[in-house]
Write a structure and sequence with these properties.
By secondary structure, the chain is of the alpha/beta class. The chain has one domain: Alkaline Phosphatase, subunit A (3-Layer(aba) Sandwich). 23% of the residues lie in helices and 13% in strands. It is built from 14 helices and 21 strands. The protein has an 8-stranded mixed sheet, sandwiched between helices. β8 and β9 form a beta hairpin. α1 packs antiparallel against α2 and α9 runs parallel beside α14. The longest helix is centred in the C-terminal third of the chain and has 17 residues.
């Protein structure tokens, strides 16, 4: 009902309180209107994979004995993957190599690559892409294979992801907004902006180690100023700009960041939350469930420092003491109660996030399949869009040179074109140094009844393209202050709003294959 009609009726019946309530409801209804049929956006945010690491040979799998076979549809489009020439005559000191399912299960939970801001730039070596082994490979002291960083998987291991690509859409031209590790990717997902950090300079090891924040720009992982359960230690950092949560709050759009293990296991006598829940990871060790790349706890406007629960289930997605930061279990409770928020960010248990060194593709697959199966079972699925992506590349080899759209000239830090060449000498968005980008190419899957079937999007996009879609869909405007959302490419090329396909694709988490009966997938 239009506000003017509500006001008229209120005046007629002289019910001032009811008038105010009705006007508020009308405004909320108006603010929830969207520019597309998409009423719910879900971002599943995983850890540390490059595009080539997961999709180098898509849609062709080796189909070796003892592994789950994968056979692509005949009309599957090609991706910009590894050619035979690159696999056999690669410029790196070690060639790319296919990891078997057994190797992935046995090696990835123990080995990890170097994926720092400077290290990744050096690996790309000014476009020669020939220094991955030396620059981002595991340290020699780790006893991990020298060629580990050049490994890639196929549909015999990450079968579910390849099946999702067959049923929905994917991008082969989606990039980290900048080079660097997890927290930079998370901050860019929330705000398109790693500048505006306070304190302006933070160094590891009490000033004796490398820079974490330099001249107000975060260039490495550092603890959030407003998160009692932050994994990193030392000086907490906050950001002074806006994030996508601020824009959603201004329009009263429901949203939330939902993390497994976010609920405290206890609270100290000082009121500090302790997130002590642990699970056994793929490497056999007990690790914390809560994985703290929660970018919204870096902003005072959206932080839930003490991990407080919402006042009630009806407040999930709305502004109260939880400040839109929740335990993952609350998402499903809210969904069951018919209160699924408009914008949802999902972080699963740390042991299933896919990060090499403690997780891996098999536990990750089980979590992703369970989550996506549950999303498809919701009545809101018919108006839902899921972006499944990863926060950074972990330094894994990828053969595509990222477009250098934003330059930076930090001496000794920026080394994309060598120590003297730094990261270009031109474009410097908002005059902010330390945001050399785009960074490495990442996987991105787009799942929705409105996603084009078996489609590969070749249009250029980056992590801030996701928040740009949210901004455009709810007409929120831009973040400003140098946010990369201003220049981000569109993701709508993967969508077809005129011809939705409403069937579900229900998979088996162990195998990644369709789980019969599976009606409506044609």
């Amino acid at each position: 009902m239009a506000p003017s009609r509500i006001a008229g009726r209120c005046c007629v019946f002289v019910i001032a309180i009811a008038c105010a309530i009705s006007l508020t409801a009308a405004r909320a209804e108006d603010s929830a209107s969207t520019q597309t049929p998409i009423k719910h956006v879900v971002v599943i945010f995983q850890e540390n994979q490059s595009f080539d690491h997961y999709f180098a040979t898509y849609p062709r799998a080796a189909n070796l004995p003892g592994e789950h076979p994968f056979h692509a549809l005949e009309d599957t489009p090609a991706v910009n993957g590894l050619t035979e020439e690159l696999r056999t005559h690669n410029p790196n000191s070690e060639p790319p190599w296919r990891m078997s399912r057994a190797q992935a299960a046995g090696m990835i939970p123990f080995c990890d690559n170097d994926h720092e801001y400077s290290s990744e730039q050096k690996a790309y070596d000014g476009g020669r892409l020939d220094k991955f082994v030396e620059s981002t490979g595991p340290k020699p002291s780790s006893q991990c294979p020298r060629n580990f960083v050049m490994g890639y998987l196929d549909g015999n291991t990450i079968t579910a992801l390849w099946n999702y690509a067959q049923r929905f859409s994917m991008s082969d031209n989606f990039f980290n907004s900048t080079y660097g590790p997890s927290m930079l990717g998370a901050i860019n997902l929330a705000s398109g902006q790693t500048g505006g950090a306070l304190p302006r300079n933070v160094h590891a090891f009490y000033g004796l180690g490398p820079s974490l924040v330099l001249n107000g720009t975060m260039i490495s992982n550092v603890a959030a100023a407003f998160d009692d359960c932050a994994e990193e230690r030392g000086t907490g950092v906050q950001f002074t700009g806006k994030n996508i949560g601020d824009l959603l709050n201004a329009r009263a759009i429901t949203w939330g960041w939902f993390s497994a293990g976010f609920a405290p296991t206890k609270t100290s006598w000082t009121g500090k939350a302790v997130c002590g829940l642990k699970h056994v990871a793929a490497n056999g060790k007990n690790i914390l469930v809560y994985d703290d790349p929660d970018p919204f706890n870096y902003f005072v406007s959206t932080a839930n420092q003490h991990h407080k629960p919402p006042a009630s289930l009806t407040m999930v997605g709305s502004s109260d003491q939880a400040s839109h930061q929740y335990d993952l279990d609350l998402l499903w409770q809210a969904a069951t109660a018919g209160r699924f928020p408009a914008v949802v960010f999902i972080r699963g248990p740390q042991e299933t996030d896919g990060h090499p060194g403690y997780s891996g593709p098999l536990p990750e697959q089980e979590f992703l399949v369970e989550t996506i199966n549950r999303l498809q079972a919701l009545p809101e699925w018919d108006s839902t869009l899921v972006f499944l992506t990863w926060d950074d590349s972990d330094g894994w080899y990828d053969h595509v040179m990222p477009p250098n759209v934003n330059h930076s000239q930090l001496p000794g830090i920026d080394q994309l074109f060598g120590k003297d060449g730094m990261c270009g000498s031109g474009v410097l968005l908002a005059g902010i140094q330390g945001r050399c980008g785009y960074g490495p190419r990442l996987p991105l899957l787009i799942l929705s009844p409105y996603a084009k079937v078996n489609f590969v999007d070749h249009d250029l996009s980056d992590q801030s393209s996701i928040i740009r879609f949210i901004e455009d869909n709810w007409n929120l405007g831009r973040l400003g202050g140098g946010s990369l959302d201003e220049m981000a490419g569109s993701l709508e090329g993967s969508l077809d709003f005129k011809h939705p396909h409403l069937g579900r694709l229900i998979l088996d988490g162990k195998t990644g294959e369709p789980s019969p009966p599976n009606p409506g997938t044609n």
